[in-house]
Write a structure and sequence with these properties.
alpha+beta, 46% helix, eight-stranded antiparallel sheet, globular, two-stranded antiparallel ribbon
Length: 342
């Protein structure tokens, strides 16, 4: 089965991925942060057993108590679990075989259902996550209020309990220093804007997440429609800015892109910031047609971006690596996985 990150999607020149997440809690249990150990074990066992009985090996079942710290961190870097669940050793993850759908049990809420898809696919992601939500609802009693909607641990999720988001690659808007203005404008529409990866010195790879903040008083369809409209506007701005930069100095743009490709394709050591910076230029070059792949196949950027993260590298060799060792293995991985160009 092809993984979600090996597939392509709409507007993938700008939209790297789409995500829908639903927060749910069960009646008869305190919120996740107040669960006793016996209650947590009962919750985890009841949900995982239900899935195993009905779906069998269609999902993988990962129990945080049985996962090493590196494995939990790697799952977080792959965006399959939250930071909260990463640090909680009595929760569980039910993961689809394509790794696109994650059901987190005993995380911030009793249940968090997440769907990741490549490109701009919010509606399809919602359809997938909604089917799983309906399945769980048939077997368990959700905590729901007729006036306020789903009861969630955090008041910011009350209502639909839904977060919809897209990860965008915005190198041109970043270079033009338009991101602060963009963030302020999105804030007026109740949309959050933040870096996907940040090492403390700023964004890595010019990757940013936009997601809804309002969950009460709006439907799931309205959230998706409103966010999609704003994302389309950002896509248009990014494309216009890329073209403007290219038209103003074609040789300089092409030079930076080809040099970046050379580094990620042939370097022997790469720290994370440099790798993400050069990958950003390669992604831009491919989307603008400056670089052309030798083989007509999708460029699995979502996979590459996760596989070069520190904990994922540690997990790949099953030991803790030094920073120097990570730089060597990261460069080796990129040499093997960056496709040839013509």
């Amino acid at each position: 089965m092809r993984k979600w990150y090996e597939q392509s999607g709409k507007n993938s020149d700008i939209v790297i991925s789409s995500r829908i997440r639903l927060a749910r809690n069960f009646e008869g249990y305190p919120f996740a942060g107040r669960l006793e150990s016996e209650q947590t074990a009962q919750l985890v066992n009841s949900v995982t057993t239900c899935f195993e009985n009905d779906f069998g090996d269609e999902y993988s079942y990962l129990y945080m108590s049985k996962c090493s710290e590196d494995t939990r961190r790697a799952l977080k870097e792959k965006r399959e679990i939250s930071s909260y669940l990463m640090n909680r050793k009595d929760g569980a993850l039910i993961l689809s075989k394509d790794e696109g759908q994650a059901v987190m049990v005993a995380a911030e809420d009793h249940i968090r259902i997440q769907q990741l898809m490549s490109g701009m696919n919010l509606e399809e992601a919602y359809d997938k996550v909604n089917k799983t939500d309906d399945y769980i609802d048939k077997h368990f009693d959700y905590a729901f209020d007729e006036k306020y909607g789903y009861k969630t641990t955090y008041p910011t999720n009350v209502g639909t309990g839904m977060r919809a988001g897209c990860t965008l690659h915005l190198p041109a808007l970043s270079q033009a220093k338009n991101l602060s203005r963009l963030s302020s404008e999105l804030g007026r529409f109740g949309v959050r804007f933040k870096a996907l990866y940040d090492d403390g010195d700023g964004s890595l790879g010019n990757l940013y997440q936009v997601s809804n903040q309002k969950t009460l008083g709006v439907s799931e369809k309205e959230i998706i429609s409103d966010l999609s409209t704003l994302v389309i506007q950002i896509i248009e701005q990014e494309r216009e800015q890329r073209n403007a930069f290219y038209e103003s100095n074609k040789l300089a743009v092409e030079d930076e892109i080809y040099k970046s490709y050379g580094v990620v394709k042939y370097a022997r050591k790469l720290n994370l910031r440099d790798a993400m910076t050069f990958l950003s230029m390669v992604m831009q070059g491919l989307s603008m047609g400056i670089l052309t792949l030798a083989k007509d196949e999708p460029f699995a950027i979502n996979k590459i971006l996760t596989q070069i993260q520190p904990a994922v590298l540690n997990e790949s060799v099953r030991r803790a690596l030094s920073v120097e060792e990570q730089a060597e293995i990261r460069a080796e991985y990129l040499r093997r996985n960056i496709p040839d160009i013509v």
